Amino acid sequence: MAELLLEISGINKRFGGLHALSDVALSINKGEIYGLIGPNGAGKTTLFNVLTGLYQPDEGKFTFKGIDLFRQKPNVVVESGIARTFQNIRLFHNMTALENVMVGRHVRTKASVIGAVFRDPKTRAEEADIKQRSLALLEYVGIRKHAEEAAKNLSYGDQRRLEIARALATDPQLLALDEPAAGMNGKETEDLKKLMEKIRNDGVTILLIEHDVKLMMGLCDRIAVLEYGKKIAEGVPEAVKNDPRVIEAYLGASPD
């Protein structure tokens, strides 16, 4: 039986007179790749922002591993085991690739302020461990050779991989990826697909927003479809692809 990891119900979010999310409910099981699709303005990123603490929902319920995360701050969400990337890349562009990942890793550090100031042996050992773990993550996503390069000098595809490495540095149980394949060519997209499958196979559940319908249909275990802030369909890719409501609202025609 599938193990429930994340569950939301009755989620509503308004911006003035705009009802961005209306009574949204979904559940994500441990070990799956769960996709979220819909036309522009459907509320996908708004839902991501609610799940990661950037937006506070107006109503609803939100639990992760059975813990209530409704209206919790982003740092609490990260510490609970949810990490994310952004639709628009948000790296520290003047820092090296290694330093970017190390920043993400610090959410799991235990050094005290005094230890950081006086650099006692315990603190130095922890810093060495952070560096080694960060280098290992750069290797994991395939950009170890760029460790000492400034993030701004990396290719677009490698910057996307760096964002994923930084998110993984927080030791998430759920990795939320907001359009990671945007702007990528066919080979980069296929390589990204393989990376996401590797991440899932290594025990990290994935929540994915993506406009590349072909990628989503070939990658996700289940997919939910939003339209005007409402969930209009949910299920395995084949069922979603052939749902008349989805075809009318988003796909236009059944994708091959």
TrEMBL record:
Nucleotide-binding found in the keyword field: yes
Task: Show which residues constitute the signal peptide.
Answer: none
* Residues of the ABC transporter domain: 6-253
- Which molecular function GO terms apply here? ATP binding; ATP hydrolysis activity; L-isoleucine transmembrane transporter activity; L-phenylalanine transmembrane transporter activity; L-valine transmembrane transporter activity
Sorted alphabetically, the keyword list is: ATP-binding, Cell membrane, Membrane, Nucleotide-binding, Transport
In the record, biological process GO terms are: D-alanine transmembrane transport; L-alanine transport; L-isoleucine import across plasma membrane; L-valine import across plasma membrane
Name this protein carries in UniProt: ABC transporter ATP-binding protein
> From what organism does this protein derive?
Chitinimonas arctica
